[in-house]
Amino acid sequence: MRCRFCLTGRDGLKRNLPLSEITGQITMLQQYLPEGPDIKNIVLMGMGEPLANYQNVLKAIEIMTSDYGLGFSNRKITLSTCGLAPMIRQLGNDICINLAISLNAPDNEKRSELMPVNRNIRLNPFWRPAVIIPCRDDGCSPLSTS
Fold this sequence. Notes:
Blueprint: H1 19-32, E1 42-44, H2 54-65, E2 77-81, H3 85-94, E3 98-101, H4 108-114, H5 123-131
Parallel strand pairs: 1-2, 2-3
Helix pairs in contact: 1-2, 3-5
């Protein structure tokens, strides 16, 4: 995404993490850190845009929240995004987790300067999908903007 404030983004995209590597990071922490068994919250962010690796991230979240997988509550998982608006709506339709949107600027001009993705996905239109995502049939409000 080449955000100016992100040191890892300056190198450009090298690869997307496979499903096994995403879930493997959690299981390694659970196994090798003293506080590992007490890990209750997960934030998907950093060294790449999770929504640009959508299928692997979605499958990883399904494993994280499955009773037969890692057993995390979906309310304890947050995905941080620079704001790929079409994928925000898709995420809301597919799964129920928390969403953090990286704004980093008070207006479009400054945001475009810091975050090149804003040149294609402007701040105002990008809020629309996050705000109007309908509730799923199971009553879960998929994404919270508060």
